[in-house]
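Researcher: Good morning. I'm working through a list of sequences from a screen, and I'd like to move beyond sequence-only analysis. For each chain I'm collecting a predicted structure so we can compare shapes side by side. This is the next one on the list. No need for commentary yet; just the structure.
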Amino acid sequence: MSVVEKAIQSAQQSEIAFSKFIQPNDTGSTGGHQSGFHLHKKSWPLFFETEGEKGENKELFATIKWQDDFETSSRFIYYGKGTRNEYRLTRFGRGFPFLTDDNVGDLLVLSKKDKEYFEAFVLSSDEDIESFFAALNITSTETNGIIPKQEEQTTEDRLVKCFLKYIEGLEVEFPSTIELATNARNCYLSSYNITQNYIRSNPDKEILKWLESEYDLFKAIENDRYSELIRNPFPSIEVLIKSANTILNRRKSRAGKSLEHHLEEIFKIAKLTFQTQVTTENNKKPDFLFPNIEAYNNPSFDEQKLIFLASKTTCKDRWRQILNEADRIKTKHLFTLQQGISKNQLEEMKQYNVQLVIPKAYLTSFPGEYRADILILEQFVSKVNLTQS
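Model: Good morning. Structure tokens for this chain:
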């Protein structure tokens, strides 16, 4: 069994589990004096019976088995004295391998087996991280917290009516990825009365809300379509595996296309001129080309006004795939939902002229000295708009 399969099984079979992207302030890359993994304040039920109270520290010593391989005697601690108000996981012993700069952007998974015994996994590759998300039915926006149990997952109350109405009218088992994205977004916008002017002013906030809403709708459709299937015993292991693979593959397919669909809507609302999936050199197909392929193929068109954007939910490994997708454009823009990347990787990206574009909320997960080189979505839209005005 692979490490990611063990991580999935551990999280599913535990009474409570937690996940987070490892960030620079966990590894000491920020130059701070804190030690160990920072844990979100809402994650306290993972290791304490009651929430930490300001003015006092409290701790729990526990054994943690890492990667189903080795154990550490570690400490969960709440710092409440003085100006501090945070939870951390510390004490891993000499030679602990998962607190280096290269681990920034990896996914940490913690599973509670009993009060003083935990299992932990660190997933590094994009494929492993996405497989974990698909199996646990969560998105990158739902990390840094307790992983919801499948049966506890519900859509936001104000979207339920719209979602149910859409599901009742579905004439297919599952809608296409574009239909799913569009209808989830429309339900969200109508439920919260979001205007296009607001979207133009807040693209970073809105794209995350759209992604969350789409995933809520997707989970609601899954629950509707598979409720009968999971109530009855499977006639054979083969049927069980086939059904599970169908569900997981559909989850991965949706996640891969979801980001592209919502970015396209952001660009349309911003009234940018662009094309998607056009063919460039060597039959490559960039996700977004601004303004269009005609301009790209015109030798006299100003190269400074040509902009390329790829979109990948995670990019620790896959950022290199975009390097030859538009040879005429030197700077390769890459929009990602990755939270945190090591300094070594960021330096390598810089050498290859890859400029990251991320939601504003994720900017603090990157090392401080590199943030000036990273664009938030609003800045990227403004940059493109200047080339087309």
